[in-house]
Design brief:
This protein is of the alpha+beta class. It has three helices and five strands. It has one domain (2-93): Ubiquitin-like (UB roll) (Roll), CATH 3.10.20.30. The chain has helices at 8-14, 30-40, 80-83, and strands spanning 2-5, 19-22, 60-64, 67-68, 89-93.
């Protein structure tokens, strides 16, 4: 099971706790886990990725194992620790302002 930590506003929308789990068949990639997340929580469709392009929304970032994965290819395999459920995959709302 892959653990996903969502930002507070998405937790509220999905009516979940701080962490959700998804099971992905085949290679675990960012697209694969987000596809599964959106299938299990349809209210999240379009909040993390654009409906049409499936590109990351501008003020969201992805982190795992202490690394920013936001600009990695969406079909790149996730780190082994994330796939094993040892480390979570973080969806983080960016902080902006001056």
């Amino acid at each position: 099971m892959i653990r996903i930590v969502l930002p507070p506003h998405l937790r509220t929308l999905a009516k979940v706790g701080s962490e959700v789990t998804v099971e992905v068949e085949g290679t675990a990639t960012r697209n694969a886990i987000l596809d599964k997340l959106e299938a299990e929580y349809p209210m999240l469709r379009g909040t993390i990725r654009d409906h049409v392009t499936l590109k990351r929304r501008p003020f969201l970032r992805f982190f795992a194992c202490g690394e920013d994965l936001s600009f990695e290819p969406a079909d790149a395999p996730l780190p082994d620790a994330v796939v094993a459920g040892v480390e979570p995959f973080f969806v983080v709302g960016a902080v902006a302002g001056g």
